[in-house]
Write a structure and sequence with these properties.
By secondary structure, the chain is α/β, with parallel strands linked by helices. It has helices at 21-31, 44-50, 53-58, 86-97, 128-141, 143-154, 178-187, 207-214, 227-233, and strands at 2-6, 35-39, 61-64, 69-72, 75-79, 110-113, 116-119, 158-163, 167-172, 192-197, 219-223. The protein has a seven-stranded mixed beta sheet. Strands 6-7-9-8 form a four-stranded antiparallel beta sheet, with helices on one face. The longest helix is centred in the middle third of the chain and has 14 residues, at 128-141. The two termini are 31 Å apart.
Amino acid sequence: MTIYVFDLDGTLTPPRLPMQEDFTAKFLPWLQQHTAFIATGSNLSKVAEQMPAQVLNAFGGVYCSMGNEFWRGGSYVYQNKFIPDARLLALLESFRRNTAYPYTLYPNYIEIRTGMLNFSVLGRDCPYEERLRYQKWDTAHKERLQIKEKLETEFPQYEFSVGGSISIDINPCGCSKAQIAGRLRQNFPDEKIVFFGDRTMPGGNDYELAEALRCLPNTKIVQVDGPAEVLTALHLDKKDD
C-alpha cells in the first residue's frame, strides 16, 4: 500500500482559494480509493474553508500548523503549544512598520497558530489580487528572504521558512513540517510514502518535510506547480469526453 501526503496551498488548491470544482470532480473518486493525508501550515478552519467537506472527510487525517496539530474525523489527536518570544514579536512589528512595499497593507499580519506562527508583511486578510501583487513585488525585491535571513541570525532557537506567496512560517526548532515524516513512518513502518508539494526546494515551506522523507527508505517527493500538475502526476488529467 502507498500512503499519499499533500500540501494544501499551491498544491491541492490555488493559494488561499477554494478547491476548484473540476479538480474536485477528478480528485475525489481517486482519494476515496487511497489512504492520504494533508500536511499544511494552516489551521483546520482554513483547511475547511478551502476544501469541500466530502473531500476533507475522505482524507485519513490533517496535519495542521506544520504538523503541530493532527486532526482525524473532526477531532484533534494531539497539539503542540507554542508561546513566541516577545522580542521576536517586536521585531516582526518592526519589519511591518519599515517595509519598502509601496502599496496598501492589511490586517492579520502576525497569526499565532498551534506550535507556530505565520508572519506576513502584507497581511493575510488581503484580497487575492493584492496577494498576487505582493508576490510579484517580493519576487523582484526578495523582502521575505531578507527578513528570513535576519530572523535566523537573531533567533537560532527557531526555524524559518518562506511560506506560500506572502508569508514566513516560524516555529521552534524541531517543530517544522519535518516532524510529520517521523509520525507517518511510525504509523506506517513499511508502506511507501509519496509527498506532493509546491515548495519542496530549499527555503520553501515544504522543504523540511521533503528532506526528512528523503532520509527515510521507501519514500518519494513529487514537486508540483499547482493542482493541474497533481492531476497529471496521478494520471487523472484526461479530458472529459
